[in-house]
């Protein structure tokens, strides 16, 4: 894969995107700094790269989309990432959300069910300098051998909150997950104890669905 360049023009467009996200209510300094640093145009098809710094979702192939920058920023802000935290991401997709979390200092583990997308990001992210552990697998199962996690972020629309993921969250940890079928409610779950969880809602959103099992292409 050819790694394309990050020009002054791209950097300028990124700073404008950061200002737009601030206007839309993103306040966390490290989220804004990470969005300002990650070259989003390198995560999407070159034919869309002129639009990379608009606050929009785009197709990334394999019937999937790269999330809208506002959604990435909102989920990252709700996750309250602290440097060094062990974080699980379900739905690597383009790898953009993963790069933002790594830029914020997360020790990231990311799962993708589609082989084609897994292969692409496994090659792209290290080339761009974003280091994390990537897995081709089913996010409904989480990563029992690596758990527990400080934080869990799900970036596909989950019809329900998977129980396996709840059990892999540390007490005191947070999970941010869009819950619902066609449209979802952005939901944050805090694990209060072994058996108690607190839920908060942060508005409607629309994600591609979280699907069962793996896909070999
Ligand atoms: N975080 C991504 C968002 C991609 S869209 C980004 O920044 O681009 C959601 C992704 O979740 C898709 O790539 C889809 O294939 C993946 N996905 C859906 N169900 C999944 C599951 N059960 N396990 C792992 N990945 C899943």
Automatic annotation (TrEMBL):
Location in or out of the cell: Cytoplasm
InterPro entries: PCMT, SAM-dependent_MTases_sf
Keyword Transferase: yes
GO BP of this protein: methylation; protein repair
Catalysed reactions, semicolon-separated: [protein]-L-isoaspartate + S-adenosyl-L-methionine = [protein]-L-isoaspartate alpha-methyl ester + S-adenosyl-L-homocysteine
GO MF annotations, alphabetized: protein-L-isoaspartate (D-aspartate) O-methyltransferase activity
Keywords for this protein: Cytoplasm, Methyltransferase, S-adenosyl-L-methionine, Transferase
GO cellular component: cytoplasm
Domain of life of the source: Bacteria
Active site, renumbered: 67
EC number: 2.1.1.77
Top EC class, one word: transferase
Entry function: Catalyzes the methyl esterification of L-isoaspartyl residues in peptides and proteins that result from spontaneous decomposition of normal L-aspartyl and L-asparaginyl residues. It plays a role in the repair and/or degradation of damaged proteins.
Family, as annotated: Belongs to the methyltransferase superfamily. L-isoaspartyl/D-aspartyl protein methyltransferase family.
Protein name as catalogued: Protein-L-isoaspartate O-methyltransferase
Species annotation: Breznakibacter xylanolyticus
Upper classification of the organism: Bacteria, Pseudomonadati, Bacteroidota, Bacteroidia, Marinilabiliales
Gene this chain is encoded by: pcm
């Amino acid at each position: 894969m050819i790694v394309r360049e990050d020009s002054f023009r791209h950097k300028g467009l990124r700073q404008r995107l950061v200002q737009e996200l601030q206007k839309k209510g993103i306040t966390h300094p490290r989220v804004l700094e990470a969005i300002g640093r990650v070259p989003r145009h390198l995560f999407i098809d070159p034919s869309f790269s002129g639009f990379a710094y608009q606050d929009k979702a785009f197709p990334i192939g394999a019937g999937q989309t790269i999330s809208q920058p506002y959604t990435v920023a909102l989920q990252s802000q709700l996750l309250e990432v602290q440097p060094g935290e062990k974080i699980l991401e379900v739905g690597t997709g383009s790898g953009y959300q993963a790069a933002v979390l790594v830029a914020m200092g997360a020790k990231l583990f990311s799962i993708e069910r589609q082989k084609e997308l897994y292969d692409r990001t496994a090659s792209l992210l290290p080339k761009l300098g974003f280091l994390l552990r990537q897995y081709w697998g089913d996010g409904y199962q989480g990563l029992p051998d690596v758990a527990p996690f400080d934080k869990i972020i799900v970036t596909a629309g989950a019809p329900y909150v998977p129980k396996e993921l709840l059990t892999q969250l540390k007490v005191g940890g947070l999970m941010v997950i869009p819950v619902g079928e066609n449209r979802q409610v952005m939901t944050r779950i805090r694990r209060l104890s072994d058996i108690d969880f607190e839920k908060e809602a942060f508005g409607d959103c629309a994600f591609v669905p979280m699907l069962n099992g793996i896909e070999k292409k």
